[in-house]
Specification:
Helices cover 10% and strands 26% of the residues. By secondary structure, it is mainly beta.
Length: 192
Amino acid sequence: MATIYTIKGTDSISSSRLNINDNFDKLNTELIEVHSFFGISAQSLTLTGPISAAAITASGNVVAQSALTVTGLTTLNGDLIVNKSVRFSVATGTITTLPNATSFDKSIYQVTCTSNISEALHNGNEGQEILIKAIGTATKTLTLLPDSSNIHGVAAGGIILTVGDDTKDTVLLRYFAAKWHIVSVGSGATVS
């Protein structure tokens, strides 16, 4: 920030001319520095540090030259075109129980089965998709049971995944209309 010389009421303009010129020079230097961030004709802003804001509204395209991290629930009101790969979040490590209702905060869950276990599949969030994989001791099973009939087309017997068999150990689910819907399931898995 420029340090500006204050011209007092008792100063004369002629004796303060050097200070006035110096003030204008300092202001001009600051203005040039601020102007370097803006491309006036292109209506652009160039920053090298982070931007913090309560809300940002963009009326055109948003282009990130490197990583773009968005925290919190984000709504896209237009199409999303992905020109490269999509990477889903994986629950770190393995778990032995599934999350509570609307607490699925990852896209992929690996459930460890050292014995045959049954787990209630609680409600998700509308539009949510998760992949569940049974891992652990070969031939042990993970049975995903409906929580209040919340798995579309699946009765009380649930979805049975078998550890160590690539045709039986995964299920991909999407939650909408208050139910989990099977998108894909291992061809050997049991759905009853």
